[in-house]
User: What shape does this take?
Amino acid sequence: MNIVQTGNGIRNFKDTGLAARKVDFTEIPQIDFGPMSSNDIADRLRVAAELKDACTNVGFFYLKNHGVPQHVIDATFDAARRFFATPFEEKMRVHISHSKNHRGYGPLLEENTDPTAKGDLHEAFDLSLDIPADDAEVLAGHTLHGPNVWPEDLPNFREPLTRYYDEMILLGRRIFQAFALALELDENFFAPKITRPGSSMRVLYYPPQEGAIDEKQIGIGAHSDYECFTILAQGGDIEALQVLNASGDWISAPPIPGAFVVNIGDQMARWSNDLFKSTLHRVINRSGRERYSIPFFYGCDYATVLTPLPNCVDDEHPAKYEPVTAYEYVSGRFAETYGYFRKEES
Ligand code: OGA
Ligand code: NI
Assistant: This one.
């Protein structure tokens, strides 16, 4: 089997035999996660088979019946709306550069997710696992762990975001379990590697873009995500997220009520020796309305060494990546995206 580098930088397996199909997807698969709670392994294996199909061919899927209460999601969107509506100076008091560990507010145009573009048209608020600054692992370095930061005068913000974060940690563990089955590993393979995961959550605000649009200045430029996978909630009924298929067509991934969008990130692609695809995506909000979204980037413990998994490597598929720790990988990618982070690291 050959690996083909397309013009868009996405790698695809070219079908030269029985080993793999190249599917040019035109829509994002929808997966019912309910049977993952079944005590019958046959039910769980069925979910895993659907996941495997989605992850090897598309890298994106909708997750239905995920078990996260809708009121938790709604409360977080409500908190996001109230935060972004506060005066700019208030938001700047928790600017992300004041944090040693990448927490807080990112204003419009400060990120540049696609390095060939001119800056992203979104605002962000970032949090992660809340770990005290005097924690041994934090003091030892090689981690982005540390304390969260919160706006001082915004009631009912920290609570809903923290609750949402905790729900994602639990849901993500179950997704890892399903991925382990999909990769024909022990169901608990990932569990010891996500005891204190490097997982960040953002609430994002995308103002509407009107008139002629410069492709180099959109809500979020074309990129792949850095961690193992991303669980995304899209607010309202706004169609803005797009996913690139192998032919170079942008496929729309509109919100489906009650479903998350989940996509594979680069760490999982590396770990699976590119069996699972980390697919380029972008956001353009041309709806005329304000858009909010909540991505949760599930990583593994920062010290985890990402070595291509044994059953993803054989004579036909030699290991494509050098082992790297999750921290080395993610901090390198952050430095490409965030100007403030580069300045601090150098
Ligand atoms: C991201 C991302 C999509 C969205 O933050 O990496 O792709 O809908 N977000 O906000
Ligand atoms: Ni993304």
Notes: The longest helix spans residues 158-182. The chain is about 25% helix and 20% strand. Residues 40 and 57 are 27 Å apart (CA to CA). Residues 204, 220, 225, 232, 234, 241, 281, 283, 293, 295 surround N-oxalylglycine (ligand 1) (CB under 6 Å).
